[in-house]
């Protein structure tokens, strides 16, 4: 999952200020401001943190100048992600210097990777908290309010925050993330996640289903089940039935046929036919899979410790299309991994052509401190070669996306209305089951966010379908 869990947040969009809602000053006499970076898991964690802070009497604010507590939920996936956080901290310097008592805290993967060193490197920071220690945030805040810098970066083998109801941040009131597990047991050599998020543990199935029921009863129409590798979800309570990922998917799908179910991220070695057949069985389980490939060459995949081969991956894609011919597919690709040759780079391009991805998250290899790759291999592909290969990958993907989206012209899709289009007040925006964004005129019908409509596609770009309601 670490690749990019998102989702929606590429590096340009990182740092989207999360300002859940203005705290009612009558209820909350202290205010927090939170920004989240990186993957969906981090955004989901920020909702857990907001819930913990609310219970401590903190309301939220949209302006960090008004905050008593400023939090950055950080990402450590690439050097650039960390530099973005360091730059952002500088933006708070003036306000902090003019506002005695304001506290600045860093959360997430960069906090876990750097630990107490973060305080030495960034004097502005008062609190450092790792992804498994958010319950201790109130105590750490009290320590920091007392003038003592505070740190808790202990990783846990049990923590899933299952009993904490997330406070939905910046929500459209229609779609929500639901974290089903934490950590990762895979050891992809380029990845920091096993070191920043710890060992894998699956959350109690019943608490997940209850959270989805609660969301549906509150008007939400779509949940995305989140995990670094959802296919290895496995909950086996001491007393009670074991639940694997296919079974969990079915339980959530049975909450209501009007509740769409998505999930992210899958792992090619673990996704099973059971999961694919369960997806095919339920209309409300969306026909879309994010299946990171990373490289199209088996030797490079072995160096990455991805535990599958080029052939295995292509067979998985073939199997997905056999069971769900219309299934949407996206992936993650890394260009220029250690020792990658031109021919091996071309293997990545050919896997993309054969898999015909609707979209991809594409990055050049960024060596991360403490990872297996950093310890074992030399980062020997020159930056200009990495860049040129990445450009070729992006160019190919843009071509594939354009062709895939063009093929949808004339087709009709069921669309869940999520919001008014950013480009036009007269247009709705939503997604089809394949996770493609569709924009269409509102017309005269009395519709609102959360409604399902059918839209016939009349034109397309490489990232958006345009159409008319029918
Ligand atoms: S170790 Fe591999 S599977 Fe796990 S989060 Fe990282 S890239 Fe994803």
Question: What tags apply to this protein structure?
Answer:
disordered N terminus, Rossmann fold, pyruvate-formate lyase- activating enzyme, OB fold (Dihydrolipoamide Acetyltransferase, E2P), 22 strands, 470 residues, 22% strand, five-stranded mixed barrel, alpha/beta, binds iron/sulfur cluster, seven-stranded mixed β-sheet
Molecular structure report:
The structure is a single chain. With 470 residues, this protein is α/β, with parallel strands linked by helices. It folds into three domains: 2-152, Rossmann fold (3-Layer(aba) Sandwich), CATH 3.40.50; 175-406, Alpha-Beta Horseshoe (pyruvate-formate lyase- activating enzyme); 412-469, OB fold (Dihydrolipoamide Acetyltransferase, E2P) (Beta Barrel). It is 33% helix and 22% strand. It is built from 14 helices and 22 strands. It has helices spanning 40-54, 79-98, 108-114, 117-121, 137-145, 193-196, 205-217, 245-253, 273-281, 298-303, 310-323, 342-355, 372-376, 383-406, and strands spanning 17-18, 30-36, 58-60, 69-74, 103-107, 127-129, 150-152, 175-179, 181-182, 201-202, 222-226, 234-235, 243-244, 260-264, 288-290, 328-335, 359-364, 412-420, 427-431, 437-441, 452-460, 464-469. Strands 1, 2, 3, 4, 5, 6 and 7 form a seven-stranded mixed beta sheet that branches. Strand 2 (30-36), helix 1 (40-54) and strand 3 (58-60) form a beta-alpha-beta unit. Helix 8 (245-253) packs parallel to helix 9 and helix 12 (342-355) runs parallel beside helix 14. The longest helix has 24 residues, at 383-406. Residues 1-22 have low confidence and may be disordered. Bound molecules: iron/sulfur cluster (SF4). Residues 1-3, 184, 186, 188, 191, 193-194, 228-229, 267 line the site of iron/sulfur cluster.
